[in-house]
Write a structure and sequence with these properties.
This protein is mainly β. The chain has no helices and 17 strands. The strands form 5 sheets. A 4-stranded antiparallel sheet has the order 1-2-3-4, with no helix packed on it. Strands 5-6-7-8 form a 4-stranded antiparallel sheet, with no helix packed on it. It is globular, with a radius of gyration of 15 Å. The termini are far apart.
Length: 175
């Protein structure tokens, strides 16, 4: 019953699941976040009207959602969208991760590289060629672990080179 389920995160005794609900690059506002009971028996639309939400991260009472070309910030307590941070030049925002300082990172699978939200401002943070097709993210200590899809050909999610897993220093962006 969750169309296009993409990512799940546990918070406050619930599982929150992003649902693309259509074209993963679409901007049709059919996407939503579901709030699911831990036994999986109850799944309600929690926040809707999103484009095609993917990755989820939680930091300081807020949920951050990669949503095509925006990083959406949701107040968990009120289930209200606080703001949508437009990521200029993004091809397809995907996964999201938070560091201990509250900085938020989102992968740009479609355009390659990583965007960072800090102090309310989002900007391209890393764009090394090795980050082509950046997809899954995990903050581990002082590093951002990035799983890349590979070099996209422009034909859907087809690649001309395989993806890899790399570690990027949060301090100096060294791969």
């Amino acid at each position: 019953g969750l169309p296009g389920a993409e990512c799940a995160i546990i918070e406050g005794g619930f599982i929150y699941v992003s649902n693309v609900n259509g074209d993963p690059r679409g901007k049709d506002a059919k996407g939503y976040i579901a709030k699911v009971s831990m036994d999986g028996k109850t799944a309600d639309k929690w926040v809707d009207g999103l484009k095609a939400p993917k990755g989820l991260a939680i930091s300081k009472g807020k949920m951050y959602v990669g949503d095509v070309d925006e990083l959406v910030e949701i107040d968990i307590a009120t289930a209200k969208i606080v703001t949508k941070h437009k990521a200029e030049g993004a091809g397809l925002l995907n996964d999201v991760a938070a560091d201990a300082a509250g900085n938020i990172y989102t992968s740009d699978t479609g355009g390659g590289g990583i965007f960072k939200l800090s102090g309310g401002k989002i900007e391209k943070w890393a764009s090394d060629p090795v980050l082509a097709g950046a997809n899954g993210l995990l903050v581990e200590g002082d590093n951002l672990i990035v799983n890349t899809w590979g070099v996209l050909t422009g034909n859907g999610f087809e690649t001309s080179a395989l993806g890899r897993i790399v570690s990027v220093s949060l301090a100096d962006k060294k791969v």
